[in-house]
Design brief:
It is a single chain. This protein has 384 residues and is α/β, with parallel strands linked by helices. It has ten helices and eleven strands. The strands form three sheets. Strands 6-5-7-8-9 form a five-stranded parallel sheet, covered by helices on one side. Strands 1-2-3-4 form a four-stranded parallel sheet, with helices on one face. α8 packs across α9. The protein is globular.
Amino acid sequence: MAKYIMSPYLPHASPKKDGSQPSHRAGWALLYSRQLDAPLIHNNDIPDDCTTLYLEPGMEFDGKQKSFNMALSGRMWNGLYTRMKRIADYVDGGGKIVLVDHTINNEDSVDWGERLYSRKKNYDAQVEKGKADSVFGQLFPNDVEKIKRATLPGTPTIYQRDIKSPNLTFGDSHAISAWIEGSKCSRNDGLTLNGAITRGFDQYIDEMNMKDHHRLRLYMGNIDVRHHLCRLYPDVKEACFQAENLARSYVHEALRVKNKYGWNSVEIVELLPIEHESRRLPKSGFYKDQPFWGSTEDRMLVRNAFNQKLRQMRDEYGGFTIIEWPSEYSHCIDITVPGEDVSGIFKEHKDEEITFKKGMLRFDVMEKPHSVHVAPSFYLWSIV
């Protein structure tokens, strides 16, 4: 009996020829792959020995949508046909489907057959205009009905809360990169440290159905530095002061839940180094139409103030350890290069000389082509 994971509509990015994985989106599936001992299929055929197929549609997937958030045109329909045809043939041969991070009830979350039917009208219009060929249409109705029957309400599901482990990694979208291997992972995209403290960490811990409480790792605060501290406190000295207050509250909350649940150990991951502001980011990473607030240099000062306060409180209070990022992830000296020689930057910087200062995060450890996250090849659990 063999288990595998695949994304039903947008394949997880395959590793590069050197074995590195640049996609943070694939990182979530890789995490599940480790937990379930189920290799990723990426964009390949479903192996003949597969008896359980986990459908992991990606961290951006919203199960309550009637379709899936993927614009399709031209030969992209053919790629979708290939992936869905693989699933249809697999279930036709008696294969079992398990849904990852989504439940189907056909009320606020429809089955995968219905999701395909929802794209039929758009596909037919493109065929009529000559913008798509007839391949995708071959799924209808027989193969779509096979997929529908395999993903009806009652199809088995799995969430992070269902993973059996006494350990928990909790944080925002960056938490994947600092995951304790084998632990449950409470990943909360867009969560600020300030918001988590206000709500109380126990709200998130309780959602994970922990039976035992051995090891807790916390990783939050990067969003607060990128979008909020320098915006709310334009004076960098005041922003640093507020960062120290935030770090202090962080430690107090961490120790509070340690005592409440009886965690054997608590770890706090220090904030990631700050990348040069020329780094191009997707609009999903913007706040109030800006990719960041405060200069790179100011945010470096704020980040350092935050991390230093963590260290000070560790030495003063004890009760938790600090996980540091490898020093080689940052530039060790100042280096200036022409913008035209740097990929993945905002176009307004292409005609400039860009100075990467000592301590700035290196672009080559970040997700390609552009993102705020570390690439999976540089996750803490990928380098040990």
